[in-house]
Amino acid sequence: MTDGNRFIGRENVRKRLASLAERPGRATYAHGEVRIQTTDETIVVRPPFGLAHARVYKNVELGPLFEALDADHVVAALLVRLGGYAVGVFEGERLVASKVGSRFVKGRHKKGGSSANRFRRRREEQERALIDEAADTAATVLEPHRETVECAALGGDRRAVDAVLAARPELAWVRDRALPRFFTVPEPRQRLLERLPYDLYAAELTHARH
Asked: Cα separations (Å) of 32 from 9, 55, 203?
């Protein structure tokens, strides 16, 4: 029976797996993940920043996994939704540079006619103003850290993030270094940006009972 996939903070992964080291089993490191097999369950863990180690152990060897989970990274963050944005740079879990902003963007108009067209044009203007402001901010905040940033965390609304990255050619490197996971955030605010490291360092875990 499979319990499904979920993301778990790195400290909680360690707590979840620590007892398995005492059981008979097997650990297979390959393709950026480790498959841990015991007599009654199989757990697959995929660390957020990859797992270069590759080897098959005839016991539940967790050392290489814990080493990968414990490693800190320099990560750029770009979170955008229509209405606001947050840009930051993390060294490990420490936020070393950031800026957030907001702009009002009207909701969608449900009626037709000329008034709907005016509403649509006004909304598009507001969207463009937000996108341009977010792109300018991203370029200003992130560029000084370009040489040291290893990965980029993108989140919020995919369309809005894509528009921001497309607005400034000099942001192409941010997309090139984007993590596979897209981070869901309700509102890009400072407090949510400061909480992002928990999700940044959360590992994807799949659990199946035999």
From this structure: 18, 11, 12
